[in-house]
Amino acid sequence: MPGFKGLFVPGPTNMPFQIRQALDVALEDHRAPDYPQFILPLLADVKKVFQSKNGHVIIFPGSGTGGWESAVANTMSPGDRVLAAVFGQFSHLWVDLCQRFGLDVDAVQTDWGKGVPLDQYRARLAADKQHAIKAVLVTHNETATGVTSDVAGVRRILDDLKHPAMLFVDGVSSIASIDFRFDEWGVDVAVAGSQKGFMMPTGLAIVCVSEKAIKAGETAKLPRCFYDYKDMLRSNAQGYFPYTPAATLLRGLRASVDLLFSEGLPNVFARHRRLAGAVRAAVDAWGLRNCAQGPEWYSDTVTAVMVPEGFNANDVVTTAYHRYNLSLGGGLSKVAGKVFRIGHLGWLNEIMVLQALGGVELAMHDVGIKFEPGVGVGAAVRHLSKASEAMRIAAE
User: Which residues span the domain enclosing 338?
Assistant: First the structure.
């Protein structure tokens, strides 16, 4: 089929031409005498994406799951207790990883469509008079359900209670797309991946860690080697790595960070909010429901759309792909067959979002979901036009 494929899964995301060019380089010597001249400024600039001055950025070859593993392995000992909430497939998988490492996980089961239950976190932390809970886990943006949680709210609870637990955040589908404040929110380990807001191929686990997390490694007893923070930080301080890095991807990361900075992080966040609003306007106009159970949970990077009773969301996904070259995300685990997901993060603009919504309308029409053709795209156009006018007035 001629034309570009439409990539609107919540990761990997569309890759800018500048990053593709940056990746198309000859292989290089990662032990070269001048390599630190590339690596040291890169590490410093990636830290700015986390909005951190005090943290340390560590970049592993791997995916977000590797970043999760690094957080646990570098700070915990067998039997340590952690507090987490399960409200989607990825928050579930992080809990599963902790359990495989032999941690005692207090997993708060939460409706899929809501986020971290602050009231239950407060209750459990308040009851923990002996401070047995060593870490609190927050999935900032649950990619499976299109739900964003309040990380700052969790930090306020910890501070109010003077609880010393570390704060770990999965920011894989939020960092570089949604406002994330590592220092201000008192995060101890934040995990990102290269294939989402950083607009790159999969292959880098990008982690920011606090001094508190590094110090925890001095007494932590879980085994670690490949994901050892201490080894990485020792080599990174000289501009090198303890083993062969994904050097080509690091060149792409340089281009990614440059693009983010050229737009300006506040503008990146505002663009994602604007485009997400257009998708949500379309869902409302179709007469369908957002999986997120209220505006306080709405994600600016992915929307999970509930199909009506009697329909299988996978039919929308497969029809969009095979007939219209449009990739949408399918439902996972508890919401399999109930939702299809529209990823709206990374390198995209208004007309790309309208393209995706038009493709969704084609697929839904073909599978028999009842709606007025064009109503969703029209609602998105009105939303975006209004936002554009507001931006123009603000700029005058």
Answer: 6-12+264-395
Looking at residue 393, what is its pLDDT? 84
Provide the CB-side half-sphere exposure for 320 (13 A, CA).
27
Question: What is the CATH number for 329?
Answer: 3.90.1150.10
Nearest to 207 by CA among 244, 236, 238: 236
Judged against a pLDDT cut of 80, whether residue 113 lies above it is answered with yes
Instruction: Copy the structure tokens of residue 277.
Output: 């609003």
Does 25 share its domain with 121? yes
Q: Domain containing 191 — which CATH number?
A: 3.40.640.10
Residue 50 pLDDT > 80: yes
Mean pLDDT value across residues 98-102: 98
pLDDT of 86 reads: 98
Q: What's the rounded Cα separation, in Å, for the pair 338 and 348? A: 26
Residue 216 CA, distance from chain mean position:
25
Residue whose entry in the numeric block shows the structure tokens 């028999």: 368
Q: How many Cβ atoms from other residues are within 10 Å of residue 313's Cβ?
A: 26
Q: Let me know whether 221 and 286 are in one domain.
A: no
Token couple for 147: 């739900």
User: Is 80 exceeded by the pLDDT of residue 396?
Assistant: no
Per the confidence metrics, is the pTM higher than 0.85? yes
| Angstrom distance (rounded) from CA 313 to CA 295 | 23
Smallest CA-to-CA distance from 88 within 119, 116, 118, 68 is with: 116
Q: What is the pLDDT of residues 362-389, one digit of tens each?
A: 999 999 999 999 999 999 999 999 998 8
Q: Is residue 1 part of a domain?
A: no
* Domain end marker among 262, 290, 310: 262
Tell me how far apart the alpha carbons of residues 229 and 189 are, in angstroms, rounded to a whole number: 11
User: Which strands form 166-170's sheet, in the order they lie side by side?
Assistant: 56-62, 203-209, 189-193, 166-170, 133-139, 81-86, 104-109
Give the H or E element holding residue 205: strand 203-209
CB proximity list for 232: less than 8 A, separation 6 or greater = 58, 60, 241, 242
Instruction: Give Cβ neighbours of residue 200 (< 8 Å, ≥ 6 apart).
Output: 15, 19, 194, 249, 252, 253, 256
